[in-house]
Amino acid sequence: MKSKMLAVFVVAAMLAAGFVSAINMQIEKKEIRITGVASGNSLSVAVHKIKPMNLAMEGKEIKNAFHPVARTTDIPVGNQETTEMHPTVATDGKVYFAGYTNSEDILTQDIYMAYSPDGTNWQPTGYWNIDGVEDYPSFDYWGNGKYYGTFQPDPSTSYQYLMNASDITDPSTYSLVYWDWSSYGWYDFKEPAIACDGSQNPWEYGFIATIASTTYTGYECTNAPHMFFADPEDSNRGYISWYNTYNNTMHCDVDIDTSTHMGYAVYDWLNESSSKWTILIWERSFEDPLNGDSTVIELNSQHNDQVPSVGAAGGYVYIACQEDYNIPGKNDIVCYYSHDGGVTWEESVIAGDPAKDEMYPKIIAYGDSAACIYLMDGDVYYSFTTDGGATWSEPEKVNDNAGSVVMEYRSAMLAKGGAVMWTDNQAGNYDVYYDNVGVPSALITIEGIKGGFGVSATIKNIGGAAGKSIPWSIKFDGLVFLNKEKSGTVDIAPGEEKTISTGFALGIGPVTVTVTAGSDTATAKGFMLGPLVLGLK
Question: Using one digit for the tens of pLDDT, what is the confidence trace for 16-32?
Fold first, then answer.
């Protein structure tokens, strides 16, 4: 086995938190018929308004746990003699951050990490050396160069992990915290997924969706939907929420629409009364996760829906899942999509070969366009929509070596920059491979923020289509008297750079500048001296 760089900084935290239950909710049920579906399919939609209850305690820190070890450079994402599997990948549109499970044996699994400045050359950064069997990493970009991540704990523990990588090129900036929920009766945390939003406080990472069980008296549940998030008022506390009405869920995913700051966690649930698998959508406001909107929606189709993946951007929400659409027992990939933030829903088919099993989708949203990958016959396939989910392109195979992709849950992942990562067995053992399928839409990145007379920012469209009326804003936080906030829209062609600015502004003292363009956000701190903005970094 190649040498390794050990990037470990473990901060132990025991934080209890809030929960939801049937006792604390108001339920509204209604029947609706959705349009744009084949065979007259209809959905029964149950809407549950949830009022959470909360508990908390302070965290504790373990110091001096960092142990650096040298590793080789410029190797593929994962090609060791051990088993590499269940990859994740995230990007700010310029660089890529990947993670995967490295298994030495049935008792030893660690989470490995690597980054790439271009998607071609991958630099390993290290791994989390934790006793036991960790699995299913999930990473997402928070903004301002920062990434957060999580992963499934060893089955013998009740830990919720949160990784912070302030600079993915520098492992010394990585840190790891965990919450031990065992004292409140939790156990069996499964397959977590993280979604980030950098619009709130610096410690508010976003939402983590997972499936878990608890013996908490009066609120017991088995394999029920759960959600984690940070305390908006206290950086040392975190919350757990759960919904104990829906037992017997199996898979989950989560995304946050950074334009509306609404989170969407999705779960597949076995409805015992109908004996069908149903998709649950847990909507929750990220602007106010404790007191804001929190709703659970059941999408009850006429078929079995499993393994959901969700993407949300610009008010559009897409849920891809595998469904026995044509033949019972045969899986197709369908999409439930909403153009109004989840108020109304329609359905379309992404891939529906009745002779094939299409499985394990992952979907990414760009607004009125979206991209989806899935697995079939040992290959990764890619399809996209440019009309909000109504129609999808003819699927194309991503991997070059046919039939060697491992057909299992979270074996392939897709990131917003078009990055595809998958587990491949072509060399006789599981390795992690990478390719890029491009972006079927405009994708805006913030290239830099400058001071002077006011603030200006350079933005770039790195996507594959022109951006029309892309919203942008520049906001000051501090003692600013004139042009404290400036916003507008911009048209920007693929590959084009443009400058946005506040124009003349007036203030005094320390300021924080937040720039948002499309789905990208960046911040910088400096000092205002009248019309001059100085020392931004």
Answer: 333 333 223 222 322 32
